[in-house]
Amino acid sequence: MELDSTYKHTFIPLTTLSSGEGHEVTVDIFYYCDQIVNLCFVGEILKEVKEWVLVDTGMPGTAERIIRVAEERFGPNSKPQSIILTHGHFDHVGSIEVLLEQWDVPVYAHELEIPYLTGKADYPKGDSTVNGGLVSELSPLFPNHSIDLGDQIKPLPADGKVPGLPEWQWLHTPGHTPGHISLFREKDRALLAGDAFVTVKQESLYKVLIQKQEISGPPKYFTTDWRAAKESVRKLQALRPLIAVTGHGTPMSGEELSLSLSDLAENFEEIAVPEEGRFVH
């Protein structure tokens, strides 16, 4: 796939990160690796007024590091206009309560995800029967309880607009969770996919540790609706993204992304769906 002129201008070569490191993937998208999960700071640092949005909030106990990265990038005492959550699993909302004590900003998620963010519903426990590696086997031990953000959590606008990011749209991409969303910007076809698909075999501790890049479906041990997950991947593939930052693994771009995502969409059952598992059938 040939990159358009806008993308050629803004694209920055990608590198594999270790936990606690960050990297620009475009002039206004900075992804930060927080142990095993990625979060994104979206906003230009060269503008005089630095307005930005945080997408997901990483692992528990890492809020101070996230605040430090934000201030290094956008200046002292900087805070986002809003926080957007792709979904409410513990590794994507782990630091949000501490961050909100510091920032006191609105948080947005899909309306179907809000019960898990207001203490009204818990996710199913991780499914060790999906196989695939040590992470899957350990997943029943991962936190699955809800958090309660009270009136700080708000439903995303029904028209697909993203508060604080006027050029972006949100897309409902369920399957991994009922209210999972992804973010897309048409002008450079940039995609923040959350866990709708990922670029590492998240079930395998070895592949997570070495960050071996390979496109995969959503993490198997937490995915509850495989039919919806397949349709979500097809929806994202139809957008023909030129760069994708996923919740786990390193960003993927250009022809590699195009071919890999097309293969995943066409062969989802073989690549993504486990042979066994509580939610497979």
UniProtKB/TrEMBL annotation:
UniProt cross-references to InterPro entries, sorted A to Z: Metallo-B-lactamas, NDM-1-like, RibonucZ/Hydroxyglut_hydro
Role played: Counteracts the endogenous Pycsar antiviral defense system. Phosphodiesterase that enables metal-dependent hydrolysis of host cyclic nucleotide Pycsar defense signals such as cCMP and cUMP.
PANTHER family on file: METALLO-BETA-LACTAMASE DOMAIN-CONTAINING, METALLO-BETA-LACTAMASE DOMAIN-CONTAINING PROTEIN
Signal peptide stretch: none
Swiss-Prot/TrEMBL catalytic activity: 3',5'-cyclic CMP + H2O = CMP + H(+); 3',5'-cyclic UMP + H2O = UMP + H(+)
Protein name: MBL fold metallo-hydrolase
Pfam family of the protein (one): Lactamase_B
SMART domains according to UniProt: Lactamase_B (SM00849)
Domain annotation Metallo-beta-lactamase: ranges: 39-248
Alphabetical list of CDD domains matching this protein: yflN-like_MBL-fold
Organism of provenance: Paenibacillus sedimenti
